[in-house]
Amino acid sequence: MSDSKNRSKTLGILVGGGPAPGINGVIGAATIEARVRGLKVLGLYDGYKWLEQGITSYVKELFIPEVSRIHFTGGSILRTSRANPTKSEQKLKNCVKALTELGIDYLVTIGGDDTAFSATKIAEMSEGRIRFAHVPKTIDNDLPLPSNMPTFGYETARHVGVGLVHNLMEDAKTTNRWYVVVCMGRKAGHLALGMAKAAGATLAVIAEEFPNEKITVREVCDVIETAMIKRRALGSEHGVVLLAEGIAERFDVEELKTIPGAMIEYDEYGNIRLAEVELGKIVKLELERRFAERGEKMSLVELNIGYELRCAPPIPFDCEYVRDLGYNAVKYLLDPTYKDYPAALICKEGGNLKPILFKDLIDPKTGKTRVRLVDVHTESYEVAQGYMIRLRKSDIEDREQLNILAKTAKMTPESFQDRYGYLVGVKK
Fold it and tell me: Is 224 within 8 Å of 205 (Cβ atoms)?
């Protein structure tokens, strides 16, 4: 039964950032619950793109019959964009003005950390006139949710990615070659590590494993090269390496400028456009060069996995998860218990709604949303590393093993240790 006291209220829904499996499920669940409670529901196309210009014509009223089955589908029926209204105060004012003209009392934003950050600023500009509920979405899994809950879309992306990696593993074995696969993950390596661990890939390399603020191309290639040498010493000439794209974001920009093909471009939020850095190509060419110096030809193929995952139909985990999130977004907005909290991130903990205030998500050092990184000190990460092929301290300390690796690399044991020992904490 509808709630008559909400009859004159309007809920808006928009999607920002990159796609993720489950977006339509949030839209559907929020629309259904809002309609049941007597709200009018407006879908706003293309994220903040038109709002920041003060344009109100890219809007569609949503009804239950048309959204009742969209949770099975990938993509976004409202499309999405990376428009960033925080670039200027005028754009923020335009957003508030447009939302006010549309009569929107509540706004559900679906997106990642950048979309959430924009929502915080619009909420401040509206001075509480519009209540905001942000539903966290990113296949990168890098938002700090309670109880270590994943961001919706991550589990589906990993599921689809594992199938692709498994196919590459079979191809690598069949053709006796190596694949260097770059996976999405701007700040955190959850997706690359999760895919590699679940698929049993040869190796995953993520930015979090490097202790220094800056990562060099040499370090990354040393980790992979020694894994390839060790794999060869074990009798195999093939493998699949997964790299988290965020590695490139920690490269020294000046170093990147000296590397062929490493074009540096930035998006509207000031982030390096990682797709333009060509991390896989850089690593591939450097590894080929190293083996060529030994008089050997190494068959390497580099590719990216990311866009193939973002609009995949959600698996049951995400279908169920986003239904909870969409329902809880509307519940939060209308529940008088939260009347003093005009804007929050919608999460669940122990099966219940867990709203988190936007201000509690902000990193005081950066002024932006805090990021959840892979914790490399957990047993889960220890297990992931334990099943990878990579250089270990015992490989250096065991003289027989060191001799085998050095011979495979066409080096003396001493030179091998001097060259690569630092990777495992063995100094010259």
Answer: yes
At 127, list the tokens. 């001075």
| Whether the predicted pLDDT of 274 surpasses 60 | no
Residues 249-266 have a mean pLDDT of 70
pLDDT band at 1 (very low <50, low <70, confident <90, very high): very low
Q: How far is CA 187 from the centre of its chain?
A: 7
Sheet holding 40-44, edge to edge: 59-61, 40-44, 10-15, 106-111, 131-136, 343-349, 352-357
Cβ–Cβ under 8 Å, residues 192 and 220: no
Domains observed in the chain: 4-152+314-361 (3.40.50.450), 157-311 (3.40.50.460)
Alpha-carbon distance 109 to 107, whole Å?
6
Please tell me whether residue 347 adopts helix, strand or coil conformation: strand
Distance from C-alpha of 10 to C-alpha of 12, rounded to nearest angstrom = 7
More reliable by pLDDT, 379 or 337:
379
**Residues annotated as catalytic (active site), given as ranges:** 140
- Name the strand (E) or helix (H) holding 138: none
Report whether 304 contacts 192 (CB < 8 A): no
The tokens for 377 are 């000190």
DSSP string over 382-399? HHHHHTS----HHHHHSH
Measure the CA–CA gap between 116 and 86, rounded to whole angstroms: 11
Q: Is 242 helix (H, G, I), strand (E, B) or coil?
A: strand
Q: Are 182 and 302 in contact (CB under 8 A)?
A: yes
Tokens of 380: 């889960």
* Rounded Cα distance, 110 and 20, in Å: 10
High-pLDDT (> 90) share of the chain, %: 76
| pTM of this structure | 0.91
User: What pLDDT digit, counting tens, does each position of 172-219 carry?
Assistant: 999 999 999 999 998 899 999 999 999 999 999 999 999 999 999 999
The H or E element containing residue 10 is strand 10-15
353-361 contacts at long range (C-beta below 8 A, 24 or more positions apart): 353/328, 354/146, 355/133, 356/146, 358/116, 358/119, 358/120, 358/123, 358/132, 358/134, 359/120, 361/116, 361/120, 361/143, 361/144
- Residue 56, both tokens: 């109100």
